[in-house]
Amino acid sequence: xxxxxxxxxxxxxxxxxxxxxxxxxxxxxxxxxxxxxxxxxxxxxxxxxxxxxxxxxxxxxxxxxxxxxxxxxxxxxxxxxxxxxxxxxxxxxxxxxxxxxxxxxxxxxxxxxxxxxxxxxxxxxxxxxxxxxxxxxxxxxxxxxxxxxxxxxxxxxxxxxxxxxxxxxxxxxxxxxxxxxxxxxxxxxxxxxxxxxxxxxxxxxxxxxxxxxxxxxxxxxxxxxxxxxxxxxxxxxxxxxxxxxxxxxxxxxxxxxxxxxxxxxxxxxxxxxxxxxxxxxxxxxxxxxxxxxxxxxxxxxxxxxxxxxxxxxxxxxxxxxxxxxxxxxxxxxxxxxxxxxxxxxxxx
Length: 348
Hints:
Elements: H1 2-20, E1 24-28, H2 70-77, H3 94-97, E2 100-102, H4 112-117, H5 123-141, H6 143-152, E3 154-158, H7 161-168, H8 173-177, H9 180-200, E4 205-209, H10 218-226, H11 235-258, E5 263-267, H12 270-278, E6 287-291, E7 318-320, H13 328-341
Parallel strand pairs: 1-2, 1-3, 3-4, 4-5, 6-7
């Protein structure tokens, strides 16, 4: 009897979640790209093995992971399907996209110059694709039902790391224009404009994603080692991430005051990610210093392919899948933490 009561309660809770959040809509970079880059003329793709080997059917979808990315887990936590399909994936149509769609593009950022580095989709174009999606959704469901979905959906955003690591610290142009504090402010202004644009298009429940401790990515630890600093996190990069997150958090507070009827949350992965990196064994990992794919020191995209004999056999032992991206297990831990502490607030 107790079991039946508990089971019934769980079902009620799931149905409650399903009734409150009709869809998850995603913007961002490779941390959440579900395969949109597959359809671009860019080298930044991951639609080949060993990527996706732990995804459903062992399929390399274009996600930069051995399995699911954070937004997939978040969608599942909201009672929706356990993955969010890419807008450009021809295997899906508007009946699929009505409950979730991903516009993200690996390699992009807030700054248009960031997307130019590897010829990927800039943020403004992700928004244009979303506008196109709105029209298609209204044609498919009718204005009233589509508008309800668009206003009640949760909008997830995750970007910014590429702006610093692939643009500001790699190329000279932005460093000539801005010091790092000024560049942060430049990006925050773009983030503000982006959120306000989503709001003007009907979005009301929005998660603005923060930066991870980007100095602890295996690629950055390798760089530190090569310049004689040992296999340590880049402390300067982590300080920049912390400062930028602080500014994004303040932006969220400001926007909640300014945008009537909105509920905007700041999903900051920094602390939980840092805890995992500092003590991986506490979370069931063996290492955070190197990644599963090949040597795990500098491989990403085409440098992490099926022909390399060194890729690990069990990605669950590794915090990172490739030199830039977490493993599916890490994505799950971080996503569940953010859902429990922040994103669940969007249910009320």
